[in-house]
Design goal:
Shape: globular
Strand content: 15-25%
Radius of gyration: 15 Å
Number of strands: 7
Order of helices and strands: HHEEEEEHEHEH
Helix content: 40-55%
CATH topology: Trna Endonuclease, Chain: A, domain 1
Number of domains: 1
Number of helices: 5
CATH architecture: 3-Layer(aba) Sandwich
Distance between the termini: 12 Å
CATH class: Alpha Beta
Structural class: alpha+beta
Largest sheet: 5 strands, mixed
Length: 138
């Protein structure tokens, strides 16, 4: 299977749809861990392959740094999904999500804040890496 921008976009659509489904059933204002576990169930139902609480190797000037850098989800080895349940998304949350995407060499990352009224309009932001921009469109 060839990885294309279209494939990444379709996968992103499925992931955001799963987040909307969880938000619709669970509602806003719960702890991030609740949404995380619900999403694992939702991804299983959709047949998506994912790694949860994935530890990201980190090196500094060629030396491995023994610290715990974890992303919430890496889905189909292509998309980083970072979850929040906060009053508002700050620049640091976006930077964290983009950093994870770049460290994992993923084409896209999605930042989702479950503590909103309308997840689609207020709670989702996606980011594309240089890898995504270099992929064929179809």
């Amino acid at each position: 299977m060839m990885i294309t921008q279209k494939l990444i976009n379709e996968l992103s659509y499925k992931i955001v749809g799963a987040c909307i489904e969880v938000h619709k059933l669970a509602g806003p204002g719960l702890y991030e861990e609740v949404y995380h576990q619900c999403l694992e169930k939702e991804f299983d139902l959709l047949g998506l392959k994912y790694q949860s609480e994935l530890e990201i190797p980190f090196s500094y000037k060629g030396n491995h740094i023994n610290c715990k850098v974890k992303c919430d989800f890496l889905i189909e080895e292509l998309i980083v999904l970072e979850l929040k349940s906060v009053a508002e998304i700050h620049q640091i949350h976006k930077a964290q999500t983009i950093n994870y995407m770049n460290l994992l060499k993923a084409p896209r990352s999605i930042l989702v804040n479950f503590n909103v009224t309308n997840l689609y309009h207020e709670g989702c932001e996606s980011f594309a890496s240089k890898i995504f921009k270099d992929l064929p469109k179809e």
